[in-house]
Amino acid sequence: MGEAVDLPAATHFGEGNVNAPGPTIDLVAQDDLPATKKPEDDDDWDYPYPTDFKIRERAIDDIRPLKVAVIGAGISGITAGVLLPIKVPGIQLTIFDKNSDVGGTWVENIYPGVRCDIPSHCYQSTYSPNVNWSEEYAQGHEIRNYWQSVARKFNVHSKCRFRTKVNSAQWDADKSKWILNVLDIEAATTADSEFDFIITANGHFNEWKMPSYPGIETFKGHIRHSSNWDPNFDPNGKRIATIGNGASGIQVTTALQKQAAHVDHYARNKTWIAGSFNPSQRERQETAMPFSEQQLKDFQDPEKYLAFRKQLEGSFFRRFEAILRDSETTRIGADRFKQIMRERLGDDAELLEKMVPDFPPFCRRLTPGPGYLEAITKDNLTFIQDPIDHFTETGIVTKDGVHREVDAVICSTGANVDFAPPFPIVAGEYDLSRDWKPDGKFGFPYTYLGLFTPNFPNCAYILGPHPPGTSGTVPHGAETQTTYIAKLLRKISSQGIRTMTPSKRATDDFVAYCDAFFPRTNMSRKCSSWYNGGRPGARIHGVWPGSASHLTRVLREPKWEDFEYTYEKGENRFGFLGNGWTLKEQDPDSDLTPWLRLESENDLKDLHERWWDL
Ligand SMILES: Cc1cc2nc3c(=O)[nH]c(=O)nc-3n(C[C@H](O)[C@H](O)[C@H](O)COP(=O)(O)OP(=O)(O)OC[C@H]3O[C@@H](n4cnc5c(N)ncnc54)[C@H](O)[C@@H]3O)c2cc1C
Ligand SMILES: NC(=O)c1ccc[n+]([C@@H]2O[C@H](COP(=O)([O-])OP(=O)(O)OC[C@H]3O[C@@H](n4cnc5c(N)ncnc54)[C@H](OP(=O)(O)O)[C@@H]3O)[C@@H](O)[C@H]2O)c1
User: Which helix (DSSP H) or strand (DSSP E) does residue 410 occupy?
Assistant: First the structure.
């Protein structure tokens, strides 16, 4: 007889460990077949290798449709809406958004002065560029229009359910489904829907937060967050307080100073003001920076435009060194920014002293802020660093006891940057909205590569924790993350997989890498930023631990060994092999030899590697 071997257990849904010892079968050696029953002797001969395996009567490429929900239709959700239907055969995609159109950030942020702070030609998809950007740094509405046009071009709207807010996501372990509870905002009704896989794309800054100073609710004037700007509010001639000197506060203060009678600008901490994001670019100006006629003409030539784009976007992939602690770029940056600040503050040494931070540049996200420092020097603006103590019905009192009366307060106080989702995402005993918070069970956004969390099967995040950011571009990052997730979805739907979850061990190893990496960067220095959840000294979770090129490489090929799997109906992992057929070969018109191409069109690097031509 042949030797007995242990096989992995037939894997049942809900049992995570596919490597547990399973039933023992006999491997019968050819020579040991019973002498009386040989195939050549007997037409009714029984194949003597009994098995419980049940062949599924379906072709291997008869793919299981997957119901996938994306929560959010900003740049991340649009990217998913464009790429997933193309990259994942059979996907049934629904994109939920509480707004009435796609665009996220660029739909909601309509405050005066809102515009891109990186060049428009880098803040677009890689696959559907706009050669007609009107300015080097587009205003908010032009960015919104661009992304909405991309969504229309790729039919994303047909997958969207607008004015629909996701209230909660609950993993049903018996069904292996996510149950989304959604609110139809117009009808004010809620309903549950089931999905095989969910992807959060709800944005870092979407959950904007108001400050909670004593008395704020008694303030009788106009009060809003800048991300919730009231289009009917006319700032002209008003006394306005602006709170916060992040990128939003800098933009809105600069714009309001020109319209308001007076601006009290509350900036409790210092911040660096840069000339531009990228030393290879010309410095930002406050006024629009339109393209010349010749440039616009050149952009119509695809080759010239591509060369321009590659040069520009390439320079954003080369600025990683800037974030490294004690690097030459950091030192040069600090000197350069200090000089810019001095010049723009009109050589006002006292103001300069008040504004130049003790922490290095790139500890917080850089803020170019054209026109901001000039605005600060104007007579109708008071720059206030003394912390706010409380609000009154008519204004704001700082700790030093000064009461300043205003007609309106615009809070650019940022968002809920602990990155915990703003609605419960619950699996077993864990809830990401609670357990990613500092006092939660994980205490920080505990993720595998910023994309998944152990114990949360079939749940991924686009631009969640550890997004690309210090180099590269946001749209490129969303595309590479979406493509990685597409690979998982293809694997799940085509290989009989019911659940995929990153292992705790792989996740802990990633966290250990982050903990070793971030001390090398300026982000670990003492400042408050959304990289550290607004808590100096806290674990960095707002950015990828490496360069954008590094992240691109990491995401190119999933490390399948880092995941735990369960299979459909508790089947043997090879249930998906089906009945040995492909649907393709049953179609007389299909191309069964896609690898045969003109020799000139063959690139051996991708020979036999194209998933889509199978
Ligand atoms: C004012 C401002 C300016 C910025 N400028 C730049 C810049 O110049 N360059 C740059 O690189 N980055 C910039 N950013 C960062 C910007 O947010 C990202 O670049 C990018 O737009 C994020 O896209 P997103 O799709 O991930 O998130 P978002 O654009 O925030 O979209 C999230 C979407 O999710 C939806 N959503 C959230 N919760 C729910 C729910 N429970 N149910 C249903 N829908 C939900 C929201 O309605 C929203 O539409 C800026 C951010 C802000 C706030
Ligand atoms: N295109 C652009 O130029 C642009 C514009 C807007 C936003 N963005 C993007 O969005 C990100 C977020 O920008 P953001 O400005 O909205 O948020 P942010 O960078 O987090 O800044 C929030 C600001 O509010 C202050 N603040 C928070 N709570 C406060 C309180 N209770 N009292 C007083 N001040 C308080 C913070 O001060 P402390 O630092 O002291 O905590 C900080 O100055 C940016 O980093 C950028 O990525 C880009």
Answer: strand 408-411
